[in-house]
């Protein structure tokens, strides 16, 4: 797996099939819980990662192709 460079508040890795996201820093457990709750409630068909597995300190998510939001913001 290789590290994703835009995981500012999380330790994020991918192998291009899944994304392993470990929450670190302030309120890590709350941030993990919030993301899991939102992703679990969204209707199918939306372009968001599917939750593959909820881990003790993170999430294993399906990989989505595309451009990271921070790169879009930086490009204007």
Helical content (DSSP H or I, runs of 4+): 25-40%
Helix count equals 2
Average of per-residue pLDDT values: 90
Report, as a whole number of angstroms, the end-to-end distance. 30 Å
Query: What's the overall geometry?
Result: globular
Number of strands: 5
Poorly predicted parts: none
Radius of gyration, whole Å: 13 Å
H and E order: EEEHEEH
Describe the biggest sheet? 5 strands, antiparallel
Strand content: 25-35%
The class by helix and strand makeup works out as alpha+beta
Keywords for this entry:
2 helices, 76 residues, globular, alpha+beta
If you had to describe this structure to a student in words, what would you say it looks like?
The chain has helices spanning 28-41, 69-75; strands at 2-3, 10-14, 18-23, 51-54, 58-62. By secondary structure, it is an alpha+beta fold. A five-stranded antiparallel beta sheet has the order 1-2-3-5-4, covered by helices on one side. Strand 1 (2-3) and strand 2 (10-14) form a beta hairpin. The model has no long low-confidence stretch (mean pLDDT 90).
């Amino acid at each position: 797996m290789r590290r994703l460079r835009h995981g500012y508040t999380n330790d994020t890795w991918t192998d291009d099939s899944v994304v392993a996201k470990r929450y670190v820093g302030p309120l890590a457990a709350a941030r993990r819980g919030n993301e899991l709750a939102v992703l679990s409630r969204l209707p199918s068909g939306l372009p968001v990662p599917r939750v593959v597995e909820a881990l003790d300190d993170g999430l294993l998510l399906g990989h989505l192709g595309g451009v990271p939001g921070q790169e879009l913001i930086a490009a204007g």
